[in-house]
User: Fold these one by one.
Assistant:
Number 1:
Amino acid sequence: MRTHASNIIRHTFAIARKEIWHIIRDPISLFLVGFGPVIMLIIISYAFAVEVRDVPTLVLDLDRTEASRELIERLDATEVLDVIGTADDMSGVERAMDARMARVAVVIDRGLEAMFPAPSGDLLGMVAQLAALAQVGDRGLPVSYIVDGTEPISAETAIETAIKETNAFLVERARALLDMLPSSMQNLPEVQRAREQLETPIALEVITHYNPEEKTLWDLVPAMIAIVLTMPAMSVATVIAKERDQGTLEFLVATPAARLAILTGKMLPYVLIGVFNVLLMYLAAVGVFGLPFRGNLLLYVALMALYEFACLAIGLFFSIVIPNQEAALWVSLMFFLFPGFFLSGMFFPIVAMPLEMRMEAMSFPVSGGVFISRSLFLQGVGLDVVWWAVGILIYVGAIMLALSVLFFKKRIA
Amino acid sequence: MADETVLEALELTKRFGKFTAVDGVSFSLRRGEIFGFLGPNGAGKTTTIRMLLGLLKPTAGRALVFGVDMSKAAHKVRARLGYMSQKFSLYRDLTVEQNLRFYARAYGLSGKRLQERVRYAVEIAGLRGREGERTATLAGGWRQRLALAAGILHEPELLFLDEPTAGVDPVSRRAFWNLIYEIASRGTTVFVTTHYMDEAEHCERLAFIYHGRIVALGSPSEIKREHLPGEVVQVTPDDPETAVKLLREAYEAGTLAARGVNLHGAQARVLTDEPERTLVAVEELLGGAGIGYSDLDVVPPSLEDAFIKLVRDRL
Amino acid sequence: MLNRILNIAWKDFLHLWHNKILLVIVLLGGATELTLVGMATGAPIDDVRTVIYDADGSQISREMIARFEADETFAVTVADEPLPDDLNEIFTGALFGDDYIVAIDIPEGFGEELRAGRRPEVTIHLNAISALAATTARRKAEEILFYYGAEVAWPDVSRDELEAFEPQITVRYNEELDRAQYTTPSEAGFMLYVIAIGVAAFMLAREREFGSFEQLLVMPHHPMEILIGKAIPAVVLGYANFLLMLGVIHFIFGVPIRGSLPLLLVLALFYVLVELGVGFLLALVSRTQHQAVLLVMLVAFVDVAFSGYAAPVESMPPAMQTISLAFPIRHFLIILRGVLQKGVGLEILWPHVLALAALGLLINGAALLLFRRSLASER
């Protein structure tokens, strides 16, 4: 029994050595498999995690007063909006929006300056006017925004910024006028009420944990690490099919143990490549993107290796049940990469979904990998939290490997 | 008509960087003959054939096919040529019929003539009733025959075969050569490369290429006569390796009158100008060393003997 | 000549026909992918797990919790013990058994202070493990707190009056800010070309790998006939996918077709022809199908990055913005959105059509050059 087991292990390593040799002999593929993931991580993270900024904004200023100029400067000073020019009339705005020259247009109607009382003359009248400012009433605010909704995420950010800045502009200007009143008037109930209504009714303190600036980059990079790690799995998906295509599938092995040895032997080099990739990508995440890494690096590498194993097992299964390498490649591409992007929380925050739905998405191993990667990176938690995702990975990996061993024989026979 | 030249290689040379793959090769093909292009792997056979086909531009020299310079205007004669490459024979995922139809249409056949030729090709490939099978499922020998049949669908005047029988079993090779004879008998000139010596004997004329140079050119008997005067003493010893070692030592020491000693399969072959004397000497040597043997005889030299000698002379 | 071209195209279709799995993927992959994307991104961010601790327990604080409960964005759990100092315990599920995204702390005396207009403080902790979920929840919570607070603190100010204090926002083209309306056209433009260059690269790389390419060259084909013959299946399949995806976009995800449909169909065809060269280039630099597919993937990712597929190009660093102009997909996505959502025509889109034409010449020219070089130097 003992010699049998050691034979199998020897067999496994022999296959692994041969497989490594195959990979090394094809330098382009070696490069793509070895460095492709980290290159992709960097490119994609830059592209997808662009914080919304410098949204091109066009101004149509019909008020042409100190107040309107102040508002425009204020908007331009934000990170999110970037004033690129002025239009003369609405048709100019339309054209610029249609041609995508501008994605936001701010239209300031006549009467913005006039909303604010002149700082001289009837002081009590001025206070009344300021108090009413908070409740513009039926007049409405002579400021409006037109937003291009074709890109909703950036549009939402632009809208939020526009509202915040407009409100802040009104409030600060009104407050400055109230401050100019003589101190004898400051205690008047009308003045106090006017001040009160310039504030929000509840003082809200928002504390954002793990990612204080709510940067998309921070949750995207750990997710991408898990997603691009499926690349070796896609390579392995072609291995068996390739050998079958070329007629070099040399083994017709009797015992399940020996088949297991062959399959694990084929996977081993890719797991090693995966570990190499994880380390490279960890360095890129911390070094290039400035992410914090709060967990245990050793545990992280080990769990990512497990995740790689689960993905490889699926790739291997495809490779065995699908008759030729082209189809195997495409199926794994469709299975891993494209849905991986969407189901793993890159576009839609899976973490915010109800738990039952999450369990389903999690059994899709890419989601599990994303979950583990994020939790260790940002939350710095350990096995006590991610254990159940780890369990799913082991379960999926084992089932797939078992099915592979089973089908391997059938397909060859 | 019989002596009409269909192909002419004039000082063809191809260099890849510093490496000279083909070095000043010249020969010509007459209409209707089977011309063998013989040489070990890596001698420059495929490079030469690719220059002849206009796939590769020669570094120097010219390849004229039907008088057309192949590096300049190959398209003018393509329709008159057929080619069966060493690497690829037919699309494996397509059926027999689909492959043949693709070839036929590519050469501009259509309508009734296409039907006729495809049927003929199926016939000579011996695949009647199997038209709907994928070529991947055919055994190697069948596939080669089918590839050859595809290559002559358009009745080319000149057919290039690059290692057509590589990896095919001996029985299939025999059948394959019968097919080549049949094609040639219909007036098609055949240019065939091979590294099998026995196949070379089937050719009417031969060029032997070694390290990019032609070292022998002519009919098999001319080559043997020119490069290998004399005869061969052949013996089948019980222990061929020891026997050859022994004979070779004697030859090198000058005690065995011979021009060379080779091992060919299980046989020791001694080249000699004085067969009778050598026969006796071999008998004595083997007997003295206690090596048993059978089939001791004087035979005419084979092409292989000639080529071994040619190669030896250049070492 | 036409016969020979069609012969090659027909043969390539036969290859696909014999490879059923690939055929299904190439035919339906685009639409399936698109539907998945649309469904994943079109779903609103709902039921964000929220835990609220109410130290006040007043009528007012309970009413505020009810407001959160009534809102679809939040799925509220009321905690019966104070939030821990270490919020990790809530966010990882260690304390209340679920990993919450939002934790709200309502202080004692909240109701009384709010009614008196003394601006009580409420603390919201966000678990930003998903920035998008955190941002959405934050915006919604701010809104609820503002309007509810105003209702209690300033009973004489009506909701209409409060809203009038805000600037008027008009959203154009995608009025509901539906994210599926953004992602599905992106995906269609993307898949259109991934399928086209995938098939082109695959079919050419395949002939080169098996050595059959040489056989084609020895036949009386002009090299251009081979290229055109191989282009036909790629264009046909890419385009068929596009038509299917356009149907899905319009009928399932409700993206309007406000501009001229014929114009869009013509420009889409033009675009496939532009991108085709990319497929050929990739096939020509790779030695096997495997390499070709890996390269297609890599290029597709770079394209996604630069195209404005996922994030607006204007937000990228200036250098990246300039580089992005060299990617045909960037121009096509502008054309696609322009025709579909904005209803504009050539009068607005012509610069992008011109850019596509220029890039097409460049890419296909390069592919041709490389093709001729590979013909000359193939050994």
Number 2:
Amino acid sequence: MAFEFDTEGVKKTFTFLNRKAPYGTIYALEVLETVLITAAFEQHANIVFIDDGVYQIKKGQDTKAVNMKNFLPTYGIIEMEKDDADEDEDIDMVWRIIVEKESMEARGLTEDDFKVGVEVLSSAELAEVLDQSDVVIGG
Amino acid sequence: MKFALLVNEGPFTHQASDSAYLFAKAAIEKGHEVPRVFFYYDGVNNANKLSEPQADDRNLVKLWGALAKDHEVDLVVCVAAGMRRGIKDDILAEGFRISGLGQLIEAGLGTDRLVMFGD
């Protein structure tokens, strides 16, 4: 049974809440895979890094010692999708890469520590972003 | 209201699958629709027909299957998450099907609410 949804012309804002450290559990990697699929549907997306999730995009990670694939470069693809959408008028898609200020500061990080360009928003500002989202997917 | 559910945890180490099942059942009983449940992360283990819980335990794999049959709920297992965990067509329980993550995004677009169960 393949259920058919009528999604013709539907445009929504998806927010992905990355809350966990990149390694130790699989959450970060599998959210990342979902974000990439969203691009194929030309939907608006906020990719948010909060709590230990801010470590996901920290520059200079070396995962050899924990025997895990380093998926840091994949976040570069998200940034590329965002830049493409920003530059190409024919793509009706707004993507934002957001880091929560409080989480970043509590971990002694600054904007320069990240592999991709980010918007730093306060917890209150982030609450507004969530309020304006249609679908929130956490991980 | 139309609900899509996202189940992110396995049925034995976490309550998320039970909560999702009970939510789906309650929503349908109240007259809402649950056209699709998407199984991701360890949630794909909900679709393993080789799973044999003890006789006095609930059997979520079968409960999902019955829900799908009685109420036409589309139970979709993520192909990539499933392959990592050995959930393939030959051990797929009745009522489930394997497909891509696009089915999750589509469910988010085509329903009023996407409700996530998991950590």
